[in-house]
């Protein structure tokens, strides 16, 4: 890869770091591991993005925000965004920074290397206690559950683990 | 406080001083902390009303869920109403902890709703007869909700402030969805524009009412003032309404829509919006359960609560085993 | 296979299958959305509306696959077909109970649990097969849908087992619901008149294989909760895969397209 191209990709990645999840202001699509591939040819960028879940109504907004962010990068004139399902997005794609930001937001990050069908342990994002109860496996958004911490008495949310089912 | 002397030995007055010192220093009050009874009652009133409004708020929008005019809109409105139900659950959980020392629980909240004792927001008592209304609700009602909820992000009560942080972020997303419905209609056919203008006309007074009356004079109670003292909220009703005007009136105008108030204008001298105030006696009637849809929507809830009693009984029997 | 390598007969079979998949989820998601605000408790309102939203998302994916192979715009497909062009199973279009979602809904929770649980079991079996489909875009979609559907299946299974082993009233209502669903559930398990072409193109497993998996699973669950297995589910009111439907579908499509049909050409 030419030096120019790799520095261009760096700038594009920087810009993508500013594209936030429309429902979680502190977490970017990079933090969530939604960006699959970035390809720069001359002044054009093609980005493939993995939706976190298939009925996500925020994809239009994410696409718009990506284009807005990328088209501000010097030397880029157009950005093409494609949503793809392969590879499958899984919760293991969330970065360590992403996991921290989720916690600050009151959302427990999913367990690492989860195998579908097995139980998972969740800590309270506020006080770290494991003395929590699952109040509803379905939460306000499709990817989360509602829990309650019996130690600090805060309701909180947790991201449902999503693993590839082979 | 002297070392060795327990908090419980303090007089009520000293406890109160200590409590006010804490909230004035920006500390958060937690569920098991000592709090004045009045603070607890204010929180229960505010949070249960907020929670139940999220739940009752699903009903006018629900009317439009299956009818939303594209697959994308169907998904977006389903997601929105679903979020709101989730917010309702989170908020009622916070309210339940506050109510527990008073011997009350979720069932009491539902009973209070059915009996009319627990009020819900004026906007959810109103008719939503067209798709334009679904757009106005998502854009302006949610926009108004963001303004009033954002001021409570720093609420002195910890669990409420924390839940609001996530709730507000999602409301911002809803308002974007609403704005996109509005834009599509405003850029659409004359029929679509007319439908939109009709909806705005229908909802304007409700939006004025959304923030509550200017002062205790209109309602005869001073919950808002008390909540400011307790740092549950930080702004007056009128502050919030003015903020709403500043944010949305220019946007409404830029879409070529007309606000159904020919007196509305920004007054440079006072730096305030001048507008035609709502009819507050009508507001009282509406929130007392006499709005155009109050009883219909409550009936839907009551009816399903009754129809499904066997389910709750069955679940309780399982738990007892 | 990709769109370019499909032979005409395979394409026809694929289109038939996609309509079945899309319409099944579309109609059941619609019936689910009618429950909004009426579920037995708030937690269930949150959960059920989340499941319905997911299912609407799945329907949307399938309609988009149809759009991509030249069946027209996804929105037109979903909103403008006449009822006899729908390929969903009849049991999935059936109303939730007396009344409408806006007026005097006397919806039947037992029927809803049974219908959704039986459907979720079949949907899981179907997806498990589809992820190896010869048509790669469909296999990809199935793999994605499966991670979400996993939670739906778990949800309905808990409901089903809990109510089947609780109060006498609950068991009575659930048993009546099973009998009712059984009369038409055969319509979900069939691949319809193009069954042979669908299987020959390796789009999905043979319907008899999948039927057997479903029957085995349900028979085991019924046994576990102390109920008897009523024999193969039937198709008393006809086969929706042939375009045979009831008045309930007319009501459903009229509601679903009420706004869109006023002007399909404009942006909404």
UniProtKB/TrEMBL annotation, chain B:
InterPro entries: Aromatic_CoA_ox/epox, Ferritin-like, Ferritin-like_SF, PaaA, PaaA_PaaC. GO terms for molecular function: phenylacetyl-CoA 1,2-epoxidase activity. Keywords: Oxidoreductase. Its EC number is 1.14.13.149. The keyword Signal does not apply. It is an enzyme of class 1 (oxidoreductase). This is 1,2-phenylacetyl-CoA epoxidase subunit A. It comes from Fictibacillus norfolkensis.
UniProtKB/TrEMBL annotation, chain C:
The lineage of its organism: Bacteria, Bacillati, Bacillota, Bacilli, Bacillales. Coiled coil: none annotated. This is Phenylacetate-CoA oxygenase subunit PaaC. InterPro entries: Aromatic_CoA_ox/epox, Ferritin-like, Ferritin-like_SF, PaaA_PaaC, PaaC. It comes from the Bacteria. Gene3D superfamilies: 1.20.1260.10. It comes from Fictibacillus norfolkensis.
